[in-house]
């Protein structure tokens, strides 16, 4: 009943930029933290960045200084601005959202993923 729809992935040259978007829709009672994770072939899924409802952010070491996460609470949307992209950033990027339904009940939801490929 909750969907996270990602957009903005694609092919870009090293040093280029992409902007990812993720919009949550459906049965949303209370939207808490949102974030971006990525997974490359043969690798574990890793945190790229996350952001709380209050705007506090956290970044993985490999993307600090290059990526910026932001959100629009009114639109239930989180963004990831990716600059100075490197080939090692190539991965499937997944949107994540934590949604609460009261009485201590909350769930993590995941988007389908969007491919980001950085190559010459």
Can you offer a commentary on this structure?
The protein has 120 residues and is an all-beta fold. It contains no helices and eleven strands. Strands 2, 4, 5, 6, 9, 10 and 11 form a seven-stranded mixed sheet that branches. Strands 1-3-8-7 form a four-stranded antiparallel sheet, with no helix packed on it.
Short description:
This protein has 120 residues and is mainly beta. It is 0% helix and 57% strand.
Question: Which terms would index this structure?
Answer:
single chain; 120 residues; mainly beta; seven-stranded mixed sheet; four-stranded antiparallel sheet; 11 strands
CA-based shape: elongated
Average pLDDT works out at 95
β-sheet strand percentage = over 45%
Termini Cα gap: 40 Å
| Main pleated-sheet profile | 7 strands, mixed
H/E element order: EEEEEEEEEEE
Separate helix tally:
0
Helix content: under 10%
């Amino acid at each position: 009943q909750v969907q996270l729809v990602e957009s903005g992935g694609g092919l870009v040259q090293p040093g280029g930029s992409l902007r990812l978007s993720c919009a949550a829709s459906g049965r949303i009672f209370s939207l808490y933290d949102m974030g971006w994770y990525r997974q490359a072939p043969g690798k574990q899924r890793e945190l790229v960045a996350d952001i709380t409802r209050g705007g506090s952010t956290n970044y993985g070491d490999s993307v600090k200084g290059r990526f910026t996460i932001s959100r629009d609470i009114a639109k239930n949307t989180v963004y990831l601005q990716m600059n100075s992209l490197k080939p090692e950033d190539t991965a499937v990027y997944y949107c994540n959202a934590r949604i609460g339904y009261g009485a201590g009940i909350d769930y993590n939801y995941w988007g389908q993923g969007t491919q980001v490929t950085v190559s010459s």
